[in-house]
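Record 1 of the preview.
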Amino acid sequence: SLVKAWTSARGREVVALGRELLGGNGILSHFHVAKAFCDIEAIYTYEGTYDVNVLVAGRRITGAAAF
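->
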C-alpha cells in the first residue's frame, strides 16, 4: 500500500511539473501532458485510493487502525 500511495503521489507531482514546464501549452489536448494529468488524477483520487493506501500502510507499521 505504501508503494501504491507513493507512486500515485509522485506521478501526480511529475505531471504537474510537466504541465508547469509547458506553460499554457500544458493544458492543450495535442500535448500529451494534459492527458497524462487527467489519467494520473483519476488514479490518485479514485475512491480515495491515495488516502486509503496511506491508512493501510500506517496500520501495518503501527498496528493501530485509524479508520
